Structures are given as structure tokens and as C-alpha cells.
Amino acid sequence: MGLLMNSQLIYRAMMENEMKKTILVMMAAVLTLFFTASAMSEVMSLRGNSDLNAMAEKPAKKTVQSIKGGIARSYKLQPPMVPHTTDKYEINLKNNGCMKCHSEKTYKKEKSPKVGDSHYVTRDGKTQSTISSRRYFCNQCHATQMGAEPLVKNMFEGVK
Amino acid sequence: MNNGKRMGGFTLILIGIIAGIVLWGGFNTAMEATNTEEFCISCHEMEQAVYQELQDTIHFSNRTGVRATCPDCHVPKEWIHKIIRKIKASNELYHKMLGTIDTVEKFEEKRLELAQNVWKEMKDTDSRECRNCHNFDSMDFDRQAERSADRHDEAIDAGYTCIDCHKGIAHSLPAGYDPANDLPGEAEE
Questions:
Q1: Cβ A100–B58 below 8 Å, yes or no?
Q2: B66 vs A49, more confident
Q3: Which of A3, A14, A79, B81 is the most exposed place for a label (fewest CB within 10 A)?
Q4: Where heme c 2 is bound, by residue (chain A) (predicted)?
């Protein structure tokens, strides 16, 4: 009998301990849920507030813009953005389609902006008659524009 | 007797007419068979180089779904010019057998010369093959970009032909060709 009582006591003590643990874990879970829920209500995914199992809202189709007179720069020394489509012009080892209009020889006739003088200077400071190889791939810096709104609203204003 | 002779002559003429139709039809069918894109790119010389480049251009895929295939630009539509071009093509067969441009590298080496041949031919025919589809008369300048409209206006006045400006629009330009040295009306080739 004495042996039985003893084992029952130990069992009860163990159960109490387990209960405490369970309650603690549950409280932590409820708290976490509460905080994540309140946090989620403030943060919105960039893809919008659509359900996971619903189709995301389809973004409007955009095409490359043609802007007469070009696009104003937002800061000094900004590479000017390209105000026309460029898909017909190739830039490869053999040819650079941009230079058909923007080169020293053709810019006047084509009424297009001339490639900047800095683009003829090599990294060693020598000025070449043809465009420097480090400036050869125009679309690394000069980008066409689609007129897309920024995903996150911001207060940025370019220098005037 | 007399009647039989007449019948004989009539049959001969009839056979002649039928044979003529069959032979002529067969000849034209065979010629048309060599006038398809499928036939052109059955040679790897065409398939591996120029056909690959064509696929990136507006003549291959565009808004309206109209496609220009090899013969549309490179073989005249009119019968007599077509025959002349087909006879000239025997030279291409000869070089195919010699393997003159059987690798892409060999082709690139010869490319400037080959391109200049095509440009010269197009210039001489006033871009006849372009004009099967494109005509100044049917161009609505109001629907063109301002720059295009201005330049087309200028081209009409100066009597330029399509290829004067539109080089390398369906295939890549060859190495060593600088468009800046080849402005229409300024530099003569």
C-alpha cells in the first residue's frame, strides 16, 4: 500500500508540472498570434491584399514610352533615360545600333543628343575616336521607361 | 479516210495541250517548292546563322501576326525576275558543294561581302522585294512616329529607296560596317 501511495504522489506531481508547461506554451502561442495578427494588418504585401489561394491582381500591361524632348534628369550626372523604344537596335560585338544616331558623325543629321565626351575616354585617360569599350553597352546605364508607378509611395523629388 | 486524219491531228493537239499543262504545272510546282522557308533552312548554312537572327526581328514576330519568310524578301515575285534569280542561285549550289561557308565562322568572315551583294541588288531594283508589302503610297504618316514620318518625307523628296536606310533590319549587320559612314545622300558606296 505504502509503495502504491508513493507512486501515486509522484505521478500527481508530474502531472502538475506538465500542466504548467502546457499552459505556458499555450499562453506564448496566443501572444504570438496576437502580435503577428496586429503586425500583419499594418504590413501589406507588394502584390496586394489578395488571398493566397486567389489569383493575384493582374498588373496593367505597359509598353515603352516615347517622350518627345526627352526626360529631365533627377540629379546631376545622371545618365539620361531613353525616351524611345530600343528593341530594334542591337548592341553586340560587331555593331552598336545606338551609334547609328548618337555618334559624333551622325547626331547632327539625326537631331539626336551626342554621346557624352567622357564616353570616349579609356580608363587610362586616353581619348579615342571611337567609343570606349567600358561605355560600349549603352543600356547598362541608359534605360527605356515604361511609366510605371513606384511600388512603394515615396517623397523623392529630383533636383530642379 | 479524211475524217480519220483530222481526228489524228486533233488528238495530237489535245495530247500536246495536256502534256503542256502537266509539264508546266510540274515545273512551276517544283520551283515553288524551292521557294519556301522550309527549303531555305534545310541547309544548315541558312538555318544556323541568318535564320536565327531573323527570329528576333519584327519581320518574324509582331503585333499583327504577319510574317515575312526568306523568299518574301530574297526572291522576286514577278515570274521573269524570279526565273533569273533562280538561275543565279546555281552559283549558291556550287558554293554549297564547295563548302565555302559551311561553318558560322566562315560565314561571319564573308558576311560583309555577302551583305553588300544583297544591298547592291536591292538598291538596283529600287528595293523591289520590300515594296511587295511596303509602299510610300499606302503609308499613313500620321500613324508613324514623328521621326519616322519626317525621314520618310525626306526620303520621298530625295528619291531614296528602302535599303538606303533600312540595312540590318532582318539580320545582324556585318562586322566592319559603320552606318555612320553610309548615310543616304552623303556617302556614296
A1: no
A2: B66
A3: A3
A4: 119, 138, 141-142
Residue of chain A whose alpha carbon sits nearest to that of B59: A88
pLDDT tens track for B4-51: 677 788 999 999 999 999 999 999 999 999 999 999 999 988 899 899
Over residues B144-167, mean pLDDT: 92
**Model's pTM, two decimal places?**
0.75
Give the one of A66, A84, A99 whose C-beta lies nearest to B180's C-beta: A99
Please answer yes or no on whether A95 and B172 come within 8 Å at the CB atom: yes
Here the cell at position A62 is: 505597359
d(CA B180, CA A107): 9
What residues contact B86, with CB distance under 8 A and at least 6 apart? Answer: B31, B34, B75
For residue A133, give Cα distances in angstroms to A83, A88, A93, B179.
24, 22, 10, 18
Burial A65-76 (b: 16+ CB within 10 A, else e): beeeeeeeeeee
Task: Tell if the CB–CB gap between B179 and A68 is shorter than 8 Å.
Answer: no
DSSP symbol at B34: T
Is B180 within 8 Å of A90 when comparing Cβ atoms? no
Was A142 annotated as part of a binding site?
Answer: yes
Of B58, B177, B180, the CB nearest to A106: B180
DSSP 8-state assignment for residue A118? G
